[in-house]
Fold each of these.
Amino acid sequence: MLEVNELSVRLGGSHILQGVSFTVPPTGVTALLGRNGVGKTTTLRAILGEVPATGSIEFDGAPALGRPTHRLVRAGLGYVPEDRCVFAGLTVAENLRLAVRDKNPDFRTVHELFPELRQRAAQRAGTLSGGQQQMLALARVLLNPQRLLLIDEPTKGLAPAVVTAVTQALARMADRVPMLLVEQNLAVVRRLARDAVVLAAGRVAWHGPAAELLGDPALTRDLLGVGSTASRHPARPANAASSGETVGSGDAGSSTDAAGRRA
Ligand SMILES: Nc1ncnc2c1ncn2[C@@H]1O[C@H](COP(=O)(O)OP(=O)(O)OP(=O)(O)O)[C@@H](O)[C@H]1O
């Protein structure tokens, strides 16, 4: 669905992405991981054409780099940014109506996945809780036909129970449309992602099955600065997404001699 090759981005005099290459398959969730400031959001923004980049990107079989953002969005590239960007002064219903691009917006799916938004249709979006605002941001992209969703840190700053609810909504969305998901909560990644791409020092440091990464505590510690509990809890329940294993900050180490998948 998405092929990123040798993506390079310079911002403010820094070479943020230095030849990033990875693919996103046409089904399932691919997690884009890495320590704070490594360039995950920049990668999403480069795919969307929001920052100048070199390299090549193919989206749904067509070249994407250099195509204007609005064309990519019309072609079915949906984006839910980290700050959610709901219109605080407008109601839930107005926020949803403003997002409609398609002749036949899919309110049925939105109401099925997010019944609470229907009950709160007349409430101003700025008065919703963080989790409800996240649901609204996710609902807005679902109104239009999508080929791929780029979702940036959807559980950031949410209370544990709300993280579980948002994770469940994302799991149901992922049944319908593939996702490239930036997420720092590894329990959420474990619940949702089939594949994982780890960025470090401007490049892809690891690319492979998410379970393989999260099942290797030494590798997760080395690449992400966190000890994964996967091996101790192989059959964690769905609501385990609420427990906190959050990716750390600083440069990822590169000393692990991990087999095979290290880029
Ligand atoms: N417009 C810009 N001008 C200059 N530097 C920028 C700009 N946008 C991002 N950066 C820098 O690029 C680096 C990568 O930022 P980015 O937001 O992509 O990281 P991230 O991996 O998403 O981080 P986090 O996990 O903290 O959200 C950071 O050092 C950031 O300060």
Note: The chain has ten helices and ten strands.
Amino acid sequence: MSKIAPSILNADNMNLGSDIQEAIDTGIKRFHIDIMDGHFVPNLSYGPELVKDFKEAFPNIEAEIHLMSNNLDVTIPAFVKAGADLVEFHYEATDQVEKWLNYLKDHNVKAGLVINPETPVEKIKPYLDLVDQILVMTVKPGFGGQSFRPDSDERISQVKELITASGKNIKIEVDGGIDDHTAEIAKNAGADIFVAGSFIFKKGPIAQQILKLENILV
Ligand SMILES: O=C(CO)[C@H](O)[C@H](O)COP(=O)(O)O
Ligand SMILES: [Co+2]
């Protein structure tokens, strides 16, 4: 299974279905859908209708929701109802992390916890029994096309150590500024899943860009 989760944020909105299909044709099984609420981050993106349409069009492909919202009472139930396969929300967005991780488990949706670059890595420790995935942000959330932060490899290694010590099977995902150079840095630090947006959708033919990443990640 591909370790790459393309972020559609920088895909061509007027040709979104065909951009997604082109990526699927290379073997992609999961897409990363960035939800920005204009409040937790200073940008706006998609709503639950997009996720519903995605699942209708591509029922066998995973929709991973990166929820950049602090209005979780509204947004988590809405994206669960829309058919999300995995929802990852920010540690920084709520003081009810445990409640929302349990909500996702109760609804048979995989649960991820996201940490921003400034958040101490140890903050994830109390939640390792409840998560399927930890997303280590490698840029400040809110915009595509930023540069991978140079302290990211150390943070990924620290998350890896915490997960190994816990004995749990939790995936580490990285998001922000991933290309065929930074993917290798993140991989060597212990990342399992690689989100890439502008590298896949803006820097060349989609299939060719995915292949460049696959070659690094084998
Ligand atoms: O969560 C995100 C931004 O907040 C995006 O997933 C991320 O930025 C991907 O885009 P790129 O690969 O262009 O950095
Ligand atoms: Co994202």
Note: The two ends are 11 Å apart (CA to CA).
Amino acid sequence: MTLQRPPVNSLNLDLLKEMSKSLDEIAKNKSKAMILTSASPKVFSAGLDIMEMYKPDLKRVEEFWTTLQEVWFKLFGSNFITAAAINGHAPAGGCLLAMSCEYRVMTGGNFSIGLNETALGIVAPNWFMDTMTNTIPVREAEYALTTARMFNVEEALKVGLIDEVATDKDDAIAKCKGFIGKFDRIPALARSITKLKMRQAAIKRLQDGRREDLNEFLQFVQNPKIQKSLEMYIQSLKKKA
Ligand SMILES: CCCCC/C=C\CCCC/C=C/C(=O)SCCNC(=O)CCNC(=O)[C@H](O)C(C)(C)COP(=O)(O)OP(=O)(O)OC[C@H]1O[C@@H](n2cnc3c(N)ncnc32)[C@H](O)[C@@H]1OP(=O)(O)O
């Protein structure tokens, strides 16, 4: 699955809906595996589209958040094998997508990956945190989340946020295929049940608290102080360009 929403693959409602549909198709056509990557030469995904949260239409922003939850359920909780070929920056929601896969290969270069929410004055939702603690040790996750740490490729490899480094996108995809090939001699049902048991607690936590999570998000986007911060953040991104 190749993310292709220039310039930075920010996750807006339309892209999330497309992803959700594609994940359904992959599950339905009984694909063995999926590799998630990006068509951009330098950004895997810039995370959630800030414009979806800035001065939002309430009905749309509710659909936006529930679709994001759905994409996470379908990706994190998939039966099929998942790997991410991370060929560029992966902040926040971009990092969430990568961590929701079972294996991550990142191309070398001046790219970064991490959950930077606290730097924006935002608290990452529990399921973002659960996805991180499913990937790297709890102590490292707490440190990274509280300090909004963006890891460079070497740091990400050292902490286990990524599994391998690749020279370029083709190499990243080849390495993801290498990971997928490891399952050729492992019974598929045993593999998928084991994966889902490992992920069950995080999945159940969001299933049980899904409405509450949505309400927290809706309160968050309607808070005037948050709106002011988002406005300043958007300006800072635009000034940079
Ligand atoms: C107690 C419970 C509380 C509950 C609270 C509930 C929920 C809140 C949690 C929400 C969780 C949030 C998750 C997120 O994902 S927020 C998004 C975070 N993402 C970022 O901070 C990344 C920002 N972007 C960048 O750092 C860079 O763009 C880059 C990805 C490193 C790529 O750099 P570069 O190639 O140099 O591109 P530009 O910076 O020049 O950007 C090109 C244009 O794209 C626009 N842009 C960039 N990122 C975004 C984005 N995330 N959303 C929308 N638009 C974005 C940028 O403004 C440029 O636009 P322009 O061409 O019009 O100037």
Note: The domain at 2-240 is CATH 3.90.226.10 (2-enoyl-CoA Hydratase; Chain A, domain 1).
Amino acid sequence: MMRELFSGDMPQLVLFDLDGTLVDSVPDLAQAVDKMLCALDRPVAGLEKVRTWVGNGAAMLVKRALADDLYPSGEEDDQYRRAYNLFLDFYAQATADQSELYPGVRECLESLAVSGVRLGLVTNKPMRFTRSMLEGLQLDSYFGVVFGGDSFPEKKPHPRPLQEAMVACGVEPDVTLMVGDSVSDVRAARAAGCPVVCVPYGYNHGSPISESQPDLIVETLDQMI
Ligand SMILES: O=C(O)COP(=O)(O)O
Ligand SMILES: [Mg+2]
């Protein structure tokens, strides 16, 4: 299906988002958030709320959990710093324990790799957790380039991490495809000048991904190939 976006050819580079696209990571994230809230004597948030808060990096997730709101104030006071460090410690203890690949993911990566398409990973998750999650789920061998939310000063929806991945691979935007689950992936791809395919099952802050008008929506990633 994705060939339609490249005049019948394969793209040279496919950049994948991680959370909500390749991996259902919310169970481990929600557990770390709830342990953090417990340690601060606050009511726990639970899986469904955390699902709507994931996608803009660890710092934003902690701010949303403290405010119990998708749109928290940006304040980074002592309470926030304590909460952030607690979250990092709890999430480091269990990053990929309950996290699972979505159906069709391994088939998609395998088929693209066999076809000679280069693969990259561009996530807003901090690098240390990205690395341990890729290793825990035995995905690390697929990706020639991996950038996290702390690899550059800007993260998605800014195009910078996508652009850096293209430069690292020596590939132009018009032969690169972004694959994601959220409005941040669509915006970053648009700003970087590459087409974008989305999955509808991920974390898009409670809104249908069709509202963000990606070039293509596939129910599972194996439908992309
Ligand atoms: O917000 C995060 O930590 C990760 O989000 P992403 O993998 O969907 O970019
Ligand atoms: Mg995502």
Note: The chain has eight helices and eight strands.
